[in-house]
Amino acid sequence: MKTALSAAVVLGGLAARATAQCRLLPGDAGWPDAAAWAALNETVNGRLVASVPIGHVCHDPTYDADACAALQKGWTRPMTHLGSSSSVMQPFFANQSCDPFTEQSKPCQLGNYVSYAVNVSSAGDIQAAVRFATKNNIRLVVRNTGHDYFGRSTGAGALAIWTHYLDSIDFFPFSDASYNGTAMKIGAGVMGYQAVQAADAAGLVAVTGECPTVGLAGFTMGAGHSALSTSFGLGADQVLAYEVVTADGQLVTASPTHNSDLYWALSGGGPGTYGVVASMTVRTYPAAMIGGASIALSAAYTTPEKFQQALAALHALLPNMTDLGADIIYTATNSVLQISPVTVFNSTGEYVNTTVLAPFTARLAALGIPFRAQYTTLSYLDHYATYLGPLPNGNLAVSSYQFGSRLIPRSVLLYNNTALQSVLQNLTSHGVILAGSAADYRSKTMTTTTTTTTTTTTTATLLKKNDSANAVLPQWRDTTVQLQLITRWNNTPSAWDAMLAEQRRMTEEYVPQLESVTPGGGAYVNEADFRLQEWKRDFFGVNYGRLMSIKAKWDPEGVFWVLKGVGSDRWAVDGEGRLCRTDQD
Ligand SMILES: Cc1cc2nc3c(=O)[nH]c(=O)nc-3n(C[C@H](O)[C@H](O)[C@H](O)COP(=O)(O)OP(=O)(O)OC[C@H]3O[C@@H](n4cnc5c(N)ncnc54)[C@H](O)[C@@H]3O)c2cc1C
Ligand SMILES: *[C@@H]1O[C@H](CO)[C@@H](O)[C@H](O)[C@H]1NC(C)=O
Ligand SMILES: *[C@@H]1O[C@H](CO)[C@@H](O)[C@H](O)[C@H]1NC(C)=O
Ligand SMILES: *[C@@H]1O[C@H](CO)[C@@H](O)[C@H](O)[C@H]1NC(C)=O
Ligand SMILES: *[C@@H]1O[C@H](CO)[C@@H](O)[C@H](O)[C@H]1NC(C)=O
Ligand SMILES: *[C@@H]1O[C@H](CO)[C@@H](O)[C@H](O)[C@H]1NC(C)=O
Ligand SMILES: *[C@@H]1O[C@H](CO)[C@@H](O)[C@H](O)[C@H]1NC(C)=O
Ligand SMILES: *[C@@H]1O[C@H](CO)[C@@H](O)[C@H](O)[C@H]1NC(C)=O
Ligand SMILES: *[C@@H]1O[C@H](CO)[C@@H](O)[C@H](O)[C@H]1NC(C)=O
Ligand SMILES: *[C@@H]1O[C@H](CO)[C@@H](O)[C@H](O)[C@H]1NC(C)=O
Ligand SMILES: *[C@@H]1O[C@H](CO)[C@@H](O)[C@H](O)[C@H]1NC(C)=O
C-alpha cells in the first residue's frame, strides 16, 4: 500500500500540494499572509493566538533556567498544559519539538504543534475559525485540554479551535418526550472536576471522567466511562442536545428530534469527526451519599502465587460487585494491587464493606494476605476529591505512559477467567501495568426498542447489541471492565527509540494477548493503542457504515480529520506533518 501511494504523492509533487489534495503548511504558496491572519484576528475580537510552545523557556534564545526547571518539574501535571493553546499531554505526538528535556541550543520549533489557535469565547468564534480554515485550505483541529491519547488535538500547520474557556455551566429542569428531570447546559470547555463541583453546589451529580481535568465534550463523543456509570450509564448516554458548528460553518442543534443523525453520531461515534461541539445539554441527577472504599495489597507480604490468586479473585467477583451497584477502579502490577475507589451511589461505606467487598476481603483473609482498606460515606464531590483528587490536578500523571486496551466482556470474567488471568499474569510479568474501570455499562436512559413495552426509566434496561439510540460501540454494553495496558514513557530524549520499541511491543505483543481471550470484543476509541490495526472494527464495529454515511453528509470535504476517526483513512499525514488526501484519482 505504502509504495504505490507514496509514489503517487511524490510524482504528483508540488502541483498536487497546491490543490485541495493536501492542507497547506506555513511557507507554502497560498498560506494566508499576515493581513489575512490579522483579519481573522479582528473577526474573533483579538482572540487569535500564534503558538508559542510552553517548552520555549528551555531553549535559546528564550532560555530561562528557573522557568525551565519549573516546567520540567511540572511536566507530568495536567495543570501545566491546560493554560497553553498548543501543548499536548502525549509526548509522542509532540515529537520532541521544543521539548523541555532536549538541549538548550536546539531551536524551539512548532513541529506537530498547531500554528495558531482561536481562544474561542462563543459559537461565533468557532464559526469564524471553521470558515477561515476551509476558505484557506488549512488543517483544522479541535482542542480542549490536550489529553488525547492519539494526538487528535494537535497537528502541524493547523488552526486550533481552542474550547478551554467555554466553561459556563447552567442548571435547569428539563422536560420532553424522552426525559423529565434536571439537566445542565455546559460549554465545550468544561472539565470533569468543574462539572462535579458545580453540580454539588446545585444539589446534583453529573457523569464525568475519573480524571478531573478530562474535558466532558471529548469524553462524551468517545463514550465516556465514569465512576457513576453503573448507576447512570456512559457519558454519551447523558446528552439531551448539542449545539454544533458544522463543516459549512453553520450553527445547528443536534438532538433526538433535530438533526437526529448528527446527534446519534456525536454520542459515542468518536471525537473531533462530525463537527465542533459548542455546548452540550446533559442529564444530571439528585445528589445522594456515596459509599466508597479503597484497598491496597502487595506481593511483598505474600507469595507470588497467592498474589495472583487475589488478582484472579477480584476479576471473578467484578460482575457481582457491579450487580450490587458498584463501580470499581483499580490498578495492578505483578507486585501491587490497588483498588481506588469503589463507588456506590446512594449508599454507605458500611454497605461497601459488608456487602460489596466482603466476598473479596474474605478471600484475601483465606489466602492470608494482609491489606489496607478504607471505607467512606461522602458526598460525590468529597468522594471524588478524596479518591481521584486532589482537585483540580488529580492523582494521574500525564506525559508518563503509553497505552493499549481492550473491553473485557462480562462473559469472559464469568466463564473464562482462568484464561484471562494467565494472560494478565504474563503481561504483568513483562512489566505491563493494568488499569481497570469496572462497571455495568448498559444504558440506563435509552428507550428500548427490543421489548414490547417502551421504557424510559432511570433503572437499568437490558439493551440488545443492536440498540442504537447512540453510536456507542455495542460491545460496551456487554463490558464489565475497560482494561488499559500501560507501559512507562521515559521523557529522557535519548530514550526515544526505546519508547518506540515499547510501542511496537504494545501493538504486536501485549494487546494481541488480550484480544485472544476476548474474541468479538472491541476497544475504547478514547483510551487505546493508537497503532491498532483493526480500528474500524474494534472502535466502531457494526456502527461504522452508518457513521461513515453521516460523516459524508455533514462533512463531505473532510474538514474534520483525526487519527483513526470515521472516514480518516481517506487522508494521511506524511513525514513533514502534511495532511493529504489518499483517495484521489
Ligand atoms: C489522565 C487521563 C485520564 C482519563 N480518564 C478517563 C475516564 O475516566 N473516562 C474516560 O472515558 N476517558 C478518560 N480518559 C480519556 C479521555 O476521554 C480522552 O483523552 C478524551 O479525548 C479527552 O478529551 P479532552 O477534550 O480532555 O482532550 P483533547 O485532547 O482536548 O480532545 C480530545 C479529542 O476530542 C475532540 N474534541 C474535544 N472537544 C471537542 C469539541 N468541542 N467538539 C468536537 N471535538 C472535540 C478533539 O478534537 C480530540 O479529538 C482519560 C485520559 C487521560 C489522559
Ligand atoms: C490578535 O489581536 C490581539 C489584540 O490586538 C493581539 O494581542 C494578538 O497578538 C493578535 N494575535 C495575533 C496572532 O497576531
Ligand atoms: C484566552 O481567553 C481567556 C478569557 O476567555 C483568557 O483568560 C486567557 O488568558 C486567554 N489565553 C490566551 C493564551 O490567550
Ligand atoms: C415528561 O412530562 C411531559 C409532560 O408532563 C410528558 O408529556 C412526557 O411524556 C414526559 N416524559 C417522560 C419521559 O416521561
Ligand atoms: C436512595 O435510595 C432510596 C431507597 O433506598 C430511595 O428512596 C431514594 O430515592 C434514593 N435516592 C436517590 C437520589 O436516588
Ligand atoms: C456471585 O454471586 C452469585 C449469586 O449470589 C454466586 O452464585 C456466585 O458464586 C458469586 N460469584 C463469585 C465469584 O463468588
Ligand atoms: C468491615 O466489616 C467487618 C464485618 O464484616 C468489620 O469487622 C470491620 O470492622 C469493618 N471495617 C471497617 C473499617 O468498618
Ligand atoms: C446489527 O446490525 C447490523 C447492521 O445493521 C446487522 O448486519 C447485524 O445483523 C445486526 N445484528 C443483530 C444481532 O441484529
Ligand atoms: C508472554 O508475553 C511475552 C511478551 O509479550 C510474549 O512474548 C509471550 O509469547 C507471552 N507468553 C504467552 C504464553 O503468551
Ligand atoms: C477461553 O479462552 C481461550 C483462549 O485463550 C479459548 O481457547 C477457550 O475456548 C475459551 N473458553 C471459553 C469457555 O470460552
Ligand atoms: C517526527 O519528526 C520526524 C522528523 O524529524 C518525522 O520523520 C516523523 O514522521 C515525525 N513523527 C511524528 C509522529 O510526527
From TrEMBL:
Keyword Metal-binding assigned: no
Keywords per UniProt: FAD, Flavoprotein, Oxidoreductase, Signal
GO molecular function list: FAD binding; oxidoreductase activity
Cofactor(s) demanded: FAD
Signal sequence extent: 1-20
Superkingdom of the source species: Eukaryota
Stored InterPro entries: BBE, FAD-bd_PCMH, FAD-bd_PCMH-like_sf, FAD-bd_PCMH_sub2, FAD-linked_Oxidoreductase, Oxid_FAD_bind_N
Residue stretches making up the FAD-binding PCMH-type domain: 110-287
Family: Belongs to the oxygen-dependent FAD-linked oxidoreductase family.
PANTHER family: BINDING OXIDOREDUCTASE, PUTATIVE (AFU_ORTHOLOGUE AFUA_1G17690)-RELATED (PTHR42973), FAD-BINDING PCMH-TYPE DOMAIN-CONTAINING PROTEIN (PTHR42973:SF39)
Name under which the protein is recorded: FAD-binding domain-containing protein
Organism: Parathielavia appendiculata
